[in-house]
Amino acid sequence: MEKVLLVDDDEMSLMVTEMVLTEMKYEVKSVMSGAECIASLKDDHFDLLLLDVELGDANGIELLKQIRKDPDIKDTKTVFLTVSSHREDMTEAVRLGALDFIRKPALPETLIRSVRDALSAREKETILAVDDEPMNLMATEEIFGIRYHIRTASSGEEALREVEERKPELVLLDLHMPGMDGLEVMARIREIEGCENLPVVFLTADDDADTEAEIFKAGAMDFIRKPFVMQVALQRIRHVLELKHLQDSMQEEVDRKTEAITENNRKIQNLSKQVILALAGTIDAKDPYTKGHSSRVADYALEMAKRMNKSEREQTEIYSIALLHDVGKIGIPLSIINKPGRLTPEEYEEIKSHTLRGYDILKTISELPELSVGARWHHERYDGNGYPDRKAGEDIPEVARIICVADCYDAMSSDRSYRKALPQQMVRSEIENGRGTQFDPDIARIMLKMIDEDTDYKMRGDTDGK
Length: 466
What we know:
Layout: E1 3-7, H1 11-23, E2 27-31, H2 34-43, E3 48-52, H3 60-69, E4 78-82, H4 87-95, E5 100-103, H5 108-119, E6 125-130, H6 134-144, E7 148-153, H7 156-165, E8 170-174, H8 182-190, E9 200-204, H9 209-217, E10 222-225, H10 230-248, H11 251-284, H12 293-307, H13 312-323, H14 334-337, H15 345-352, H16 354-362, H17 370-377, H18 398-413, H19 424-433, H20 441-453
Parallel strand pairs: 1-2, 1-3, 3-4, 4-5, 6-7, 6-8, 8-9, 9-10
Helix pairs in contact: 7-8, 12-13, 12-18, 13-17, 16-17, 17-18, 19-20
């Protein structure tokens, strides 16, 4: 059994991460300080160190420097846990040999994949970076040099010579270069024997759909926009190389592992739901009057999704997105959330900011990108007078339109710090009056039908709050 040392001074994060790793059959030791981390590494062997960037008694980067200087523990494989992504921190961490960065809060899929990849890290692979700007080549060497062997070329012609002499594992190729541009270079690479399927990832400052389509149509594996974010670039390169390794593996090996992978994925999906529920509970706990709000909104959204004939997968996604629609309230002061009277204009603006805060928290969860969509746009109005982006009509993502109706129904049908729950007929009238202005008319119609079927006003469940 592989052993993981988990170092995090956030008790909830520590508990959730340990639960996920233990369920996946890793032996986990959890500590909450830099001093305990060093002592644990010296006392026992660990296959992997999961290290929070910011600890109460130490900075994670400085702690890793200390580890790298100690001959007994200097080779410890390390993955960072981080709430933010400061370029300086990540650059220094990569220099120190950190294998990955996991943005908190992380879903089990992200955590397990990163841990598996770190534990099975291969010998350094070679990347050929091609760019006519010397500063860009220097930045590429600085960012990728710890994890990969970097060779450079400043023109298409030089790149072709490099590929013919020593085939790299991947080519990182600037799209726009004088003389031979990136697309022509890639086409010429494909003509070199043994390089027909050599992975190519483009670097481009272009930000339009036509360029993306042209790149993928030409056969590129991916592209990275300049100026690139280090964490994103590292993840994209890693994913491309992983895909290539998978394509090169033997089919019988894939078949042999299929059953085990399926079972692991099932466990991970179950853990994802548990983590999302735990986060939703943390949000609602900030306000005793909204206890259970996130779960109720998710239940209403799920019922509407069923009535809209969404697939089971879509229903599950909508439920998960609705559970975390208010995650941004984690960053709102309790004094504002629990204020019994009218909010000042400044306080109202602070409350409104939970949509953008939630989006920033959730946008890095790649396994379910629409989590951030629900958080950001569930307060948009169908007539365009909502916030934060004043989107209108079907420009508002459908899941956000669903959550908007569910959220408003729960807000009206439950007790709040400033008023008691509204009578059902008043709730119905507000939904009816908001069709086509505040709410998507078709989705509001579904909620009205649900209300009409709920003759005893029982759909709202236990909304006493306290």
